[in-house]
Design brief:
The structure is a single chain. By secondary structure, the chain is of the alpha/beta class. It contains 18 helices and 12 strands. The strands form 2 sheets. A 9-stranded mixed sheet has the order 1-2-6-5-4-3-7-8-9, sandwiched between helices. It has a 3-stranded antiparallel sheet with strand order 10-12-11. The N and C termini lie far apart (about 55 Å).
Length: about 375
């Protein structure tokens, strides 16, 4: 096939796939059934109304398949014609087999970047949009560690844990995939335009929604099922009860994937979702090897340890410093909270916190808060 013929065939294929996605009253499951019945997306849209009616396609839908909206069609073809833009239909080479095997797979994937990344072993990392500093550090560090062990990090490009997961993989020179709840030509939230560009350059942006699609609320659960289905397992870092992260974890369990959860303080609302997952059978995660063991056994002992350093012991520990460290804990708190817990004066607490920070036993965090340094989580 010559270059011009191949280009025409590609345009015909993209036109058929996007016409199916945009046709009214056709969900992903119905579209895949039609493709399987007729043999290809092109054969579906080129079938006569009688043939379509025999498969239960409504006359209005058949009409839209045969005469799609020209403005939308032009926009779809223009997007697909750009470098590193790909349209992959269900059943075609390059469609991720792990996603195809999941219930209700997307009929079409719009991919920006390297579509081969979708075929790699993946770990989904999701969590709160408003995490603590500790949660951010865990998501970033665990993601970098897992990426270094050979897992592609997959998340949803949202604020909070999602963005930390993507950044952790990228900072460790690892690949990452962002599954979006918009069309491929839109980034939500807008502040992640730069992050999305980095992801596309070192991984892939993927969505089942055609160009121009806005970030509607009902799109996010649909996005979540793709995140979990693409991945071998899903790690939840800080999630409130009823959060979207728990929806992703539920999809993962239903799809037969591993579910991991990081525990936290019983006083924190952001720990309750993770604790509920653990009660329901999710694997409690304290170290990256807790994930790599089930997902990549050969990599668990080979990857370099993450940047969690063990805090040095004080040269001459005394009782007041021990009391303060016990009261401080590993979740960020203010100096006033420490004073309330210990009964020490605010002046004494401030002085002791400074000394402990200089010793490397605690860390100062944004918002005038402090926390003990965690021990090494690499094994």
């Amino acid at each position: 096939m010559g270059a011009r013929a191949a280009e025409a065939a590609s345009a015909r294929r993209v036109r058929a796939l996007t016409a199916l996605v945009r046709a009214p009253r056709l969900g992903a499951g119905r579209i895949t059934d039609l493709i399987e019945h007729f043999g290809s997306a092109e054969a579906v849209v080129e079938a006569g109304r009688s043939a379509l009616a025999h498969t239960g396609v409504a006359p209005e839908t058949a009409g839209m398949l045969q005469r799609p909206d020209p403005a939308a069609l032009d926009r779809d073809l223009a997007w697909a014609d750009k470098p590193d833009h790909h349209v992959i239909g269900w059943g075609e080479p390059g469609y991720p087999p792990q996603l195809a095997a999941a219930p209700n797979p997307p009929a079409v994937l719009f991919v920006t970047g390297d579509p081969a990344r979708l075929l790699e072993p993946q770990l989904a990392v999701v969590g709160s949009r408003n995490p603590t500093e500790t949660g951010r550090e865990i998501a970033r560090t665990f993601s970098g560690f897992a990426a270094g062990a050979g897992l592609t990090i997959t998340s949803g490009l949202a604020l909070g844990i999602d963005s930390e997961a993507h950044a952790g993989a990228l900072d460790g020179d690892g690949p990452t995939i962002a599954v979006m709840a918009t069309g491929p030509d839109r980034v939500y939230p807008r502040r992640h335009v730069g992050l999305a560009a980095r992801i596309a350059a070192h991984g892939a942006l993927v969505t089942e929604f055609p160009p121009g699609t806005a970030p509607l609320r009902e799109h996010f659960p649909r996005r979540n099922r793709i995140i979990s289905a693409l991945s071998l397992g899903t790690l939840v870092v800080e999630a409130a009860l009823g959060s979207g992260s728990l929806i992703t974890a539920r999809y993962a369990a239903e799809q037969g994937r591993e579910v991991f959860a990081v525990p936290g303080s019983i006083l924190s609302p952001l720990s309750r979702g993770c604790h509920a997952l653990i009660r329901d059978g999710a694997t409690l995660v304290e170290r990256p090897s807790d994930i790599l063991g089930p997902l990549a056994p050969g990599a668990a002992g080979q990857a370099a340890a993450p940047a969690f350093e063990a805090a040095p012991e004080p040269a001459e520990p005394d009782s007041e410093y021990g009391v303060l460290l016990d009261a401080l804990g590993f979740s960020p708190v203010t100096a006033d909270t420490v004073a309330e817990r210990t009964g020490l004066t605010p002046q004494a607490v401030s002085s002791m916190l400074l000394i402990l920070e200089l010793r490397g036993e605690i860390e100062a965090l944004p918002g005038a808060r402090y926390a003990r340094k965690r021990a090494n989580h690499g094994t």
